[in-house]
Amino acid sequence: MVVQRFVDAAGRAAAWLNLGMVGATCVVVALRYAFDTGAIFLQESVVYLHGAAFLTGLSYALAHDAHVRVDVLYSRLTARSRTWVNLCGHLFFLAPTAGAILVLSRGYVADSWAVLEGSQEVGGVPAVFLLKTLIPVSAALLLVQTAALVARAVRELRGERRDRG
């Protein structure tokens, strides 16, 4: 399925962003303690990489059921009941939240692009607008993944085989 391939690609990108974040953190620490100097660009890049990894990894975690869940009752439910819980959660909580983020973040991102917003720090990362762009992109990915999961849940509740995609 095209949606799953795209979401998986976003998840793999998030994994590489985490590796870059670890590397940049190591360099920042080495510069600070070994050479008694700082690197604002690198310090900010760690924050940017963390934000980008989080935003690009959300839909991947959802697709692979790797998200945080309160499992006190859920684990005791039957497979059919878990499917109902997931379906209701996706339709009544996730989809409206992701939709609201998508709609409400548009002006925020547009304002940032209008001035090509950069760091407030001298020598910082001059691309705040790019990081802010990931907010509606992430919401859109979540909506697409939610639609795929809703369709899967409906198929499962109808008794169709799960391995069709």
Shape: elongated
Give the biggest beta sheet. none
Percent of residues in beta strands: under 5%
Secondary-structure element series: HHHHH
Number of strands: 0
Provide a descriptive summary of the structure in words:
The chain has one domain. It is built from five helices and no strands. The model has no long low-confidence stretch (mean pLDDT 90). With 165 residues, the protein is an all-alpha fold. The protein is elongated. The longest helix has 36 residues. The termini are close together. Helix 1 runs antiparallel to helix 2 and helix 4 runs antiparallel to helix 5.
Q: Keyphrases for this structure?
A:
mainly alpha; 5 helices; 0% strand; elongated
Overview in brief:
The chain is mainly α. It contains five helices and no strands.
Layout of helices and strands, plus pairs?
Elements: H1 2-35, H2 40-63, H3 71-74, H4 79-114, H5 128-157
Helix pairs in contact: 1-2, 2-5, 4-5
